[in-house]
Design brief:
- The protein is built from 12 helices and 12 strands.
- The strands form 3 sheets. Strands 1-2-3-4-5-8-11-12 form an 8-stranded parallel β-barrel, surrounded by 10 helices. Strands 6-7 form a two-stranded antiparallel ribbon.
- A hairpin with a 2-residue loop joins β6 and β7.
- α2 packs parallel to α12 and α11 runs antiparallel to α12.
- The chain binds zinc ion.
- The site of zinc ion (ZN) has 6 residues, from loops.
Length: 332
């Protein structure tokens, strides 16, 4: 057993307090390999942004839990070496059982999500409460994110064909009875790179798909009911057309890709939304650059030369998000 404090990590309580009052959101970037982690830490150190490193159950299986734990510890030391002691959280994304959350808490995670949103309301309350009681009873308080409302789309093991928006009248009761530290809500974001079907969208002059706007009315209603309480948005990639076009130019096929416009995420970040999850954009950036290198340099077989440019692009992407979308730059 290991506590996250031994790894140099922090939980989210103070970070969320500052983010809510400062009108910005913390980046929650998923990682499962070395290059992604390097890019995240480099970007967040350069922009002086706190960061939440997210690991899904699938990523934990892929990368091995012992390696992940030590990579997070290494990330703290790497940030110090780069010259800025940024706060780093290690967070379980979409924990689906008490056992998984417990296991993560006992192996160095400083924060976990328990996603009971696919169960009935009462079952969601009971499961979330059980995880909160375990996490908060630790000597080193571990923070817990719950979820109300269902997002559409596919993300690792999480998938749902239909979304339903969070019902504002449930949030106050849920937060009070479960004791969660933050709440993920559904206001029209969606997992994956095809966030909406073309028939749900309009098209601009260039034929690009424009998604339906986020439901800010629901967000405002929730904020009224639980003022200042930390809100989380999942599925918040913008799916930049440049990356989709680059992937397709070099042989990929990503038809009907559509994301959440960055201006809408910026607007959300200024509210009680204090954690925004971005995964698909990083996947697209990496895939685009890997395809480009392999196509332009077919003789290349050194993985560093193939993954290095992808890593550099990822770093650029994350810096841009911190500065222009989340507003988390210069908050350390
Ligand atoms: Zn999610």
């Amino acid at each position: 057993m290991v506590s996250y404090t031994e790894l140099g990590l922090v939980h989210t309580v103070d970070l969320f307090k500052k983010a809510v009052s400062g009108g910005y959101a913390l980046p929650a970037y998923n990682f499962n390999n070395l290059e992604q982690l390097q890019a995240i830490i480099q970007a967040c150190v350069e922009t002086k942004s706190p960061v939440i490193l997210q690991v899904s159950a699938g990523a934990r299986k892929y990368a091995n839990q012992n390696l992940l734990k030590n990579m997070a510890k290494g990330a703290v030391e790497y940030a110090n070496e780069l010259g800025c002691n940024i706060p780093i959280v290690l967070h379980l994304d979409h924990g689906d059982s008490f056992e998984l959350c417990k296991d993560c808490i006992e192996t160095g995670f400083s924060s976990v999500m328990i996603d009971g949103s696919h169960y009935s309301y009462e079952e969601n309350v009971a499961l979330t409460k059980k995880v909160v009681e375990f996490a908060h009873s630790r000597k080193d308080y571990v923070t817990v994110e719950g979820e109300l409302g269902v997002l559409a789309g596919v993300e690792d093991d999480v998938s749902s064909e239909h979304s339903h928006y969070t019902q504002p009248e449930e949030v106050e009761d849920f937060v009070k009875r479960t004791g969660v530290d933050s709440l993920a809500i559904s206001i029209g974001t969606s997992h994956g790179r095809t966030k909406f079907k073309p028939e749900q969208c309009t098209r601009d002059a260039n034929g690009l798909l424009i998604p339906p706007p986020l439901r800010f009315d629901i967000l405002e209603e929730i904020e009224k009911r639980i003022p200042g309480f930390p809100i989380v948005l999942h599925g918040s990639s913008s799916v930049p057309a440049e990356y989709v076009q680059l992937v397709e130019k070099y042989g990929g096929k990503l038809s009907d890709s559509v994301g959440i416009p960055e201006e809408q995420l910026r607007r959300a970040a200024k509210s009680a939304v204090c954690k925004i999850n971005i995964d698909s954009d990083g996947r697209l950036a990496m895939t685009a650059l890997i395809r480009k290198v392999l196509t332009e340099h077919p003789e290349e077989f050194d993985p560093r030369k193939i993954l290095g440019p992808a890593r550099d692009e990822l770093k650029k992407l994350y810096s841009h998000k911190n500065i222009n979308v989340l507003g988390s730059a210069n908050r350390v």
